[in-house]
Amino acid sequence: MSRKPAASTGAARIGRRRTPPPEAAGGRLKLSHLRLIVAIADSGMVSAAAQAVGMSQPAASRMIVEIERLLKAPLCERLSRGVRLTPLGQALARHARSVLLVLAQAEREVADLRAGRRGVVSLGTVAGPAVDLVAPVMGRVRAAAPDLEVEIRIDSSNNLARELLASRLDFIIARVPDEFDAQAFESVVIGVEQAHLLVRRDHPLIGRRTLTLADVGAYEWVMQPRGTPLRRAVDVLFRSANIDPPRRFLTTTSIFLTMMLAASSNAIGPLAIGAARFASESMAPGRLAILKTDFSLVVQPYSLIAMRNRPLSPAAQAVYDIILSQALPGSGRKT
């Protein structure tokens, strides 16, 4: 009896699955890869990054090798203390932040839809609109969404812009600093900030009818860091009058520390008008006062700023729209 012919070897090859080489196995970036590279960018240390994402340092080191095999390029440069991302690693970290933000927004949006009008909105603001705009508008936000949690950070425009770029804030009320690409942001001018000079109630200049730049320039000032809009406004004000700016500075971005230093010394603290009035009339009545001057300290206009091509979550969009309508009645939605 003749035997049936064996199946052709060609057919056997077609049905057999090839085992990919190690660097091609599962050859796409994973969310765990993205979380690790962002953690390394934030901490500059593999050990700290590993702890942040909940894995051991050896596992994190192996994952870095895995990512480098996928991308066929190094991600990190070892330093005496910690690591530094290569240009490729920095690019990956930047895009990873955006991907993780979109995923976080998706999770928040689903949760909002399931639980009703709930969620968390993180916004940042410079001092002036914090008092004059954000604080008053929170009543409207609370009425529209009682269960919405709003996180508010008050800081300089430079620091707020960095936090917005890092996806740690949904939007900000500030100015776009010169060091950043304005095309990366979508901004709407909503106000102009002015500042008063805050001092202790028994300051040597209190009681003088009208003070000049020369009068106030002789004292120490508590100022924001060099390059910030308020600091630039002070420099421009003095130089336009052909007077040297104050030479003695204490530098801080903290409004509270500015008030404390002004209250406990002869230092002069420029603060946004709303913040200065609140400090002198409500926060520390009897301890702080506003100097009467023959000049005005005008800071450049501030804007409502979001990232271009990064959609806001429904909760963030709702707060954005309420603030925009409060600042510019009749304005439309962000597009």
In words, what does this structure look like?
The N and C termini lie far apart (81 Å). It is globular and about 75 Å long. By secondary structure, the chain is of the alpha/beta class. The protein is built from 12 helices and 11 strands. It has 3 domains: 25-95, Winged helix-like DNA-binding domain superfamily/Winged helix DNA-binding domain (Arc Repressor Mutant, subunit A), CATH 1.10.10.10; 102-184 and 301-327, 3-Layer(aba) Sandwich (D-Maltodextrin-Binding Protein, domain 2), CATH 3.40.190; 192-300, 3-Layer(aba) Sandwich (D-Maltodextrin-Binding Protein, domain 2), CATH 3.40.190. The chain has helices at 9-15, 31-43, 46-53, 57-71, 87-115, 127-144, 157-165, 213-217, 229-240, 255-264, 273-283, 314-327; strands at residues 76-78, 83-85, 119-125, 148-154, 171-174, 185-200, 221-223, 249-251, 269-272, 288-290, 297-307. The longest helix has 29 residues, at 87-115. Strands 3, 4, 5, 6, 9, 10 and 11 form a 7-stranded mixed sheet that branches. The relative contact order is 0.13. 45% of the residues lie in helices and 19% in strands.
Instruction: Return the average pLDDT rounded to an integer.
Output: 84
Q: Identify the CATH class of the largest domain.
A: Alpha Beta
CATH superfamily of the largest domain, by name, is Periplasmic binding protein-like II
Choose one word for the global shape.
Answer: globular
Number of strands: 11
